[in-house]
């Protein structure tokens, strides 16, 4: 055999490795396609976001209402009866969600936009990865290539099921008041910048115009924060900007001035308060 | 263009097919130069101009140095060439720093300063300017009559030399993040290449290992290590684990890149130097710099440390030289106080180690070796914080590490850290066992194809979100 064709020799390291990989890949694809395991385990925040986004774009029967927002809104859990898909992203913002909906071509009846991190630009890296030309089709057809079916997610899911991880434990999460006070005072000393850069604002206008033209009802709302943070100069300026720019859109503000809802770090609700706020949202905003 | 992107795979495939087609045998060099230009200019074609200017200056200078009969002309050509290289590096990499200096001290038109400061940073500039300098210095030393174990031949035909130089500067596997190739290692390799000479197994192993380290280990760890910036809410243990994670991440990212670069170059018949040799096994800081980013360490040694006098001019001068080299090495990474501080930190560790070596001589013992290795690793890990945060952040993190002992540990981070650092721990353990225990090496080698198959499987189904290589920014 010519030397340069030695890779096709069955005994070679390379040939054996590649052959084994092919077998493993085919088996894994079949396993996932047949079992379609339910996976809720995620390895990190980016992956959790990506899975939410993939679940949304590959869902054939999409729900009529979509929430877009940041990690603050991710804590709201809805049931199927609510007809709401929560497309909020930890470490991300509502613009990423709007962009994903627009790129997917789906037109929801209603979109609820959490405005706490309005200034955050869209996550272009996630969008690029989500809608990558060939991969997008491949992941739709061969579901093993979807993010949630990573091998480690399967293992993690099994381990968590064996360990009997319970949501009720998290519902009784206690607020560390010292840590909370420290984080709130840090946030007051170094207030977050809410300046919106020009390209982000342009994208907002583009998306809002797009959905308004399609007849989607758009509602901005705020997730409750610690009362010390809700009326800062920066937050007031942001509200005023949103009202000025998109005045025709209904706006809901839940100031939490009496600290009815508890946060663990000043901005993220505890699971218990998130559940209470979800009820409020369901009764007063969704209707 | 990223190594872990589809356009890159397509480029390599197309280049490979054309390169070995018998019809294009004589145009191999042109094919690689063209592919390198596509690779470099893919996102911002205007940057190609700078690459071509840099290559042209180095081609002209080295040609003059080699062919001129007058010593004075050769000296001038070498000086002008090196200065040009440094000017390019300074203008594009340190423009922000210079802009601040100029604004503070000179009454120049603000628009000019702004224009200068906003010049884009061309990726890989630090790498290819260093290679250019290496070409000029190597040719100059050779013509000066220095006794070197290598020989560079510069043809009489300038056009031939020009395309070889352009190829040496622009060869895409090593263009933007090394390994830094020295002219005397690379130039003599230029010539006709044949498909039959490819060592497929070698290339395959390096490619799989490189992509595994980058896409499975580094890209997944990156999604954990960013939490170190949120030190206020993390426990001491979580922060310690995150620091360890970053050490593993930066190693996997850069060593992975280097392995891919070496593998791809080998597919085109070129041998690039090794860049990493299990650096976290180092028992001293001197040894660390012989194992980490080896080609930068060697470059700094050969073209800076030794010309400065190395250790030949007394103790104090030696310490001074070490500090200069390490601070400049830090600055080479970027125009930021952080990198200078990181370089100075390593300089101080090297000087401290040498000074201590004169006073304390530890006996050879396994546990002492382990303790020294752990100490070096810990201090190197601490040093990586300069890559991640400014000094204010550094102090705040240290404060948090002391005071957050009672906070709840982030079990998500801890468990994922375990999963993604484990392959690197095993990689190191395998190297150690294979070296120390022949029976193990004999037992494991025939089974490694299974390990590589699983690594390839993990690349397909367990990759993190594709991130740019950390060293691309340098």
Commentary on this structure:
The complex is a heterodimer of chains A (287) and B (474). Chain A has 287 residues and is of the alpha/beta class. Chain A contains 13 helices and five strands. In chain A, strands 2-1-3-4-5 form a five-stranded parallel sheet. In chain A, α3 (71-74) links the parallel β1 and β2 (84-88). In chain A, α4 (94-104) crosses α10 (198-213). Chain B has helices spanning 6-20, 28-41, 47-67, 71-93, 95-105, 110-117, 125-144, 158-170, 172-175, 183-186, 200-225, 236-267, 285-291, 294-308, 315-333, 337-359, 366-388, 391-403, 411-436, 438-444, 448-461. Chain B is mostly helical. The relative contact order of chain B is 0.10. Chain A binds chain B through residues 2-4, 6-7, 12-14, 16-18, 20-21, 24-25, 28, 43-47, 50, 125-126, 129, 132, 134, 144-145, 149-152, 156, 176, 179, 182-183, 186, 265, and chain B through 6, 195-196, 198, 200-201, 204-205, 208, 220, 223-224, 232-233, 407, 412, 415-416, 419, 448-450, 452-454, 456-458, 460-462, 465-466.
What can be said about this structure in brief?
Chain A is of the alpha/beta class and 287 residues long. Chain A has helices spanning 13-35, 45-58, 71-74, 94-104, 124-130, 133-141, 151-163, 167-171, 177-189, 198-213, 227-230, 233-245, 271-286, and strands spanning 65-69, 84-88, 110-114, 217-221, 250-252. Chain A contains 13 helices and 5 strands.
Tag the structure with descriptive keywords:
heterodimer, A: 287 residues, 5-stranded parallel sheet, 13 helices, 5 strands, 8% strand, B: mainly alpha
What's the average pLDDT of chain A?
84
Characterize the overall form of chain B.
globular
Largest sheet of chain A: 5 strands, parallel
Span between N and C termini of chain A? 75 Å
| Largest interface summary | A-B, 40 and 33 residues
Give the percentage of residues in beta strands of chain B: under 5%
List low-pLDDT spans of chain A.
Answer: none
The total of beta strands of chain B comes to 0
Q: What is the count of DSSP helices of chain B, taking H or I runs of 4+ residues?
A: 21
The shape of chain A, in one word, is: globular
């Amino acid at each position: 055999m010519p030397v340069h064709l030695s890779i096709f020799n069955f005994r070679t390291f390379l040939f054996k490795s590649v052959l084994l990989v092919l077998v493993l890949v085919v088996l894994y694809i079949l396993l996932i396609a047949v079992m379609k395991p339910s996976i809720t385990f995620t390895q990190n925040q980016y992956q959790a976001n990506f899975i939410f986004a993939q679940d949304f774009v590959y869902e054939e029967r999409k729900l009529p209402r979509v929430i877009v927002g940041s990690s603050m809104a991710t804590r709201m859990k809805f049931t199927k009866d609510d007809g709401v898909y929560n497309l909020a992203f930890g470490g991300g913002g509502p613009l990423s969600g709007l962009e994903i909906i627009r790129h997917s071509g789906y037109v929801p009846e209603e979109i609820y936009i959490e405005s706490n991190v309005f200034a955050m630009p869209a996550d272009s890296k996630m969008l690029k990865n989500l809608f990558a030309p060939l991969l997008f089709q491949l992941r739709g057809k061969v579901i093993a290539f979807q993010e949630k079916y990573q091998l480690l997610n399967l293992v993690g899911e099994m381990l968590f099921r064996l360990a009997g991880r319970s949501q009720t434990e998290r519902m009784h999460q206690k607020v560390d008041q010292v840590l909370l006070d420290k984080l709130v005072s840090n946030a007051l000393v170094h207030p977050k910048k809410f300046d919106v850069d020009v390209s982000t604002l342009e994208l907002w206008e583009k998306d809002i115009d797009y959905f308004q033209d399609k007849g989607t009802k758009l509602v901005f709302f705020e997730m409750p924060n610690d009362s010390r943070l809700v009326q800062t100069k920066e937050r007031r300026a942001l509200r005023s900007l949103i009202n000025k720019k998109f005045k025709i859109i209904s706006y809901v503000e839940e100031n939490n001035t009496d600290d009815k809802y508890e946060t663990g770090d000043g901005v993220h609700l505890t699971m218990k308060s998130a559940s209470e706020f979800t009820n409020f949202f369901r009764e007063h905003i969704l209707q | 263009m990223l190594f872990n992107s589809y356009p890159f795979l397509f480029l390599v495939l197309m280049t490979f097919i054309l390169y070995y087609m018998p019809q294009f045998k004589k145009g191999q060099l042109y094919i690689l130069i063209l592919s390198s230009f596509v690779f470099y200019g893919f996102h911002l074609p205007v940057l190609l101009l700078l690459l071509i200017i840099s290559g042209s200056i180095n081609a002209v200078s080295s040609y003059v140095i080699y062919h001129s009969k007058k010593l004075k002309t050769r000296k001038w050509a070498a000086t002008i060439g090196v200065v040009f290289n440094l000017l390019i590096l300074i203008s594009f990499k340190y423009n922000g720093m210079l802009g601040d200096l100029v604004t503070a001290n000179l009454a120049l038109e603000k628009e000019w300063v702004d224009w200068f400061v906003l010049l884009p940073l061309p990726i890989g500039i630090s790498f290819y300017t260093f290679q250019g300098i290496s070409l000029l210095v190597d040719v100059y030393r050779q013509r000066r009559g220095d006794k070197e174990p290598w020989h560079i031949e510069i043809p009489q035909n300038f056009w031939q030399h020009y395309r070889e130089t352009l190829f040496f500067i622009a060869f895409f596997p090593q263009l933007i993040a090394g390994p830094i190739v020295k002219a005397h290692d690379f130039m003599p390799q230029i010539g006709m290449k044949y498909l039959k000479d490819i060592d497929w197994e070698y290339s395959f192993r390096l490619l799989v290992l490189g992509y595994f380290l980058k896409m499975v280990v580094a890209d997944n760890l990156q999604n954990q290590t960013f939490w170190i910036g949120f030190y206020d809410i993390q426990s001491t243990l979580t922060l310690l684990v995150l620091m360890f994670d970053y050490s593993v991440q930066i190693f996997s990212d850069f060593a992975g890149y280097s392995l891919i670069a070496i593998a791809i170059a080998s597919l085109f018949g070129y041998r690039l130097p090794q860049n990493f040799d299990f650096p976290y096994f180092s028992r001293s800081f001197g040894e660390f710099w012989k194992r980490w980013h080896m080609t930068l360490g060697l470059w700094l040694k050969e073209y800076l440390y030794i010309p400065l006098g190395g250790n030949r001019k007394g103790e104090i001068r030696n310490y001074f030289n070490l500090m200069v080299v390490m601070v400049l090495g830090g600055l080479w990474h970027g125009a930021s106080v952080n990198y200078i501080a990181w370089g100075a930190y390593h300089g101080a560790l090297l000087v401290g180690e040498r000074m201590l070596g004169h006073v304390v001589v530890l006996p050879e013992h396994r546990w002492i070796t382990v303790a020294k290795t752990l100490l070096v690793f810990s201090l190197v890990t601490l040093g990586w914080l300069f890559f991640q945060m400014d000094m204010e952040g550094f102090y705040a993190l240290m404060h948090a590490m002391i005071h957050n002992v009672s906070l709840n540990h982030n079990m998500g981070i801890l468990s994922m850290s375990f999963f993604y650092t484990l392959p690197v721990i095993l990689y190191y353990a395998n190297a150690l066992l294979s070296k120390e225990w022949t029976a193990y090496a004999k037992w494991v080698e025939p089974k490694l194809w299974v390990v590589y198959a699983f690594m390839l499987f993990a690349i397909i189904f367990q990759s993190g979100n594709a991130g740019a290589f950390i060293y691309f920014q340098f």
